[in-house]
Amino acid sequence: MRRRPRSDRNHRRWRGDEHSWWAGALLALLLASSPVVAQRSLEEAPGYFPLERFDLLPAEALSLEINLSDSLLALVAAAMAEEDPEFAALVRNLEGIRVRGAPAAKLDLDRLRVELGEATGWLDANGWQTMLRYREEEEEEVYVYTRLVGEQMVGLALLVMEPAGDVVLVNIVGPLDMKLLVGLAESLDLPQLGLATEETADDAGEPR
């Protein structure tokens, strides 16, 4: 009995598994591509504010740097879920929190004021709305901006300069409401953010 050539046997075996081979290849393609489709980078989010773009705080002057990604925020939310499940659910939906801080004494404040003007100008020109703007000559300057998509707040930018204290920059990315902002103001020790929420509540006639 003449044996079938090995290559022919392999060919028949491949054709017999043709459908499963294509199914496996398609599944591998979907698994490889799904993170690209399902996820976007933080920089692509509408509530992202490019803190580093304006060179407000040189890296060598920083005394505080916080970078919380969505995965880290999910862990934070899980840790607080039992104590405050409503607040934890709000934190879990955030895409990122970034904080930069530096002592004002280490900075050129005249240059910083120019850079702050450019940063707030960028926010004004890119669809952000002013929640709070406070300036006192030679004293504290506070700017709080929010980004809306429809009626949903999806980002917040906070810029604070205290000549006798610190300069602080904050960007919170993701769906926000007043309860979350009040909680974050306390958690991150940002009284200026708490002041902005109080002013907004007063303007809306809401109880505090």
Write a brief caption for the model.
With 208 residues, the protein is α+β, with helices and mostly antiparallel strands. The protein is 44% helix and 25% strand.
What does the overall shape look like?
Answer: globular
**Class inferred from helices and paired strands:** alpha+beta
- Order of strands across the widest beta sheet? 1-2-6-5-4-3
State the helical fraction: 40-55%
Per DSSP, the total helix count is: 7
Mean residue pLDDT: 81
Uncertain regions spanning at least 5 consecutive residues: 5-37
Q: Could you tell me the strand content as a percent range?
A: 25-35%
- Gyration radius, in Å: 26 Å
The ordered string of helix (H) and strand (E) elements is HHEHHEHEEEEHH
Oligomer: single chain
- How far is the N terminus from the C terminus? 93 Å
Topology of helices and strands:
Layout: H1 6-16, H2 18-38, E1 64-69, H3 70-80, H4 85-92, E2 96-103, H5 109-125, E3 128-135, E4 141-149, E5 152-161, E6 166-176, H6 178-187, H7 191-204
Helix pairs in contact: 3-4, 6-7
Explain how this protein is built.
- Helix content is 44%, strand content 25%.
- The chain has 7 helices and 6 strands.
- The protein has a 6-stranded antiparallel β-sheet with strand order 1-2-6-5-4-3, sandwiched between helices.
- The longest helix is centred in the first third of the chain and has 21 residues, at 18-38.
- The termini are far apart.
